[in-house]
């Protein structure tokens, strides 16, 4: 079956599928998969089969076709096809509750930037990763992913993606409400504070600032009462982001200044990293170049102090899905860099690296 006939048969299957003749559509697509000699056509018909089996709840079959699609994408040597196939693989594993695999495949997708489809698919990748983090009850990371997905939806006027993100946020909200009930029943003040913070972050992500502010206030009261200064930093940064949404940049800076005092007192470098990043955006908007340069320098100082880079190649750690290797001295590097270097000692402290562990 050549390229033209493959295209015609795929379209025939789509017409059948759209008229609710699902089994007939599947039969047409399976014949195309068996007979076509066109790799691009095979990739497309596999996409149809993946979507159909996802909507029918046949997730094991969905995964089977996603694996075949990956092989087809590699055969085509096209980064766009490869990114799309990794997304389908991530979604398949998400449906089967293989959340760690989902996150791994999503990270692979996000590392494939520069492809022509990456901007179209990044929102869907962020959504799938958020659902995986939600499945693992890692609420803060789930919310961060949902926020990114929502931004992609708004920036690209993608109503379907926005709808799917809102559905996921609904599930997220329900889980937090259940956690809040348990916290109230057992008088667990730290958990109450965390739930209130998550509620506030959800409302902020939906630009519902008036609802977010009182939740942040309640969370801050409990965080202050129990002495959770790390939590207070998170609350203050969340409030600052609310003021940034309202374009009240001076009020945002007031909150960031308080967060900075707490972070410096605790030596919380991650908090400092986040607030310098926020300040960079604020001062860029205000056009204050001296302050902007100051926070850019401080941001990079935090990166240096936290050693968020490979000591051999100098690249930031975490920007790409590269395997890392931790040495007994606690320094870690890109695995490929250590293999290329061929040394048995740590490039940073020169101590012996007997049996390094994998991260």
Automatic annotation (TrEMBL):
Q: Which UniProt keywords apply?
A: Metal-binding, Repeat, TPR repeat, Zinc, Zinc-finger
Q: Which domain of life is it from?
A: Eukaryota
Give one GO molecular function term.
Answer: protein-membrane adaptor activity
Is the keyword Chaperone assigned to this protein?
no
Q: Write down the Pfam families for this protein, in alphabetical order.
A: Rapsyn_N, zf-RING_2
GO cellular component: a single term: plasma membrane
TPR repeat segments = 123-156
The RING-type domain, residue ranges: 310-350
- Put simply, this protein is called Receptor associated protein of the synapse
Q: List the gene name.
A: RAPSN
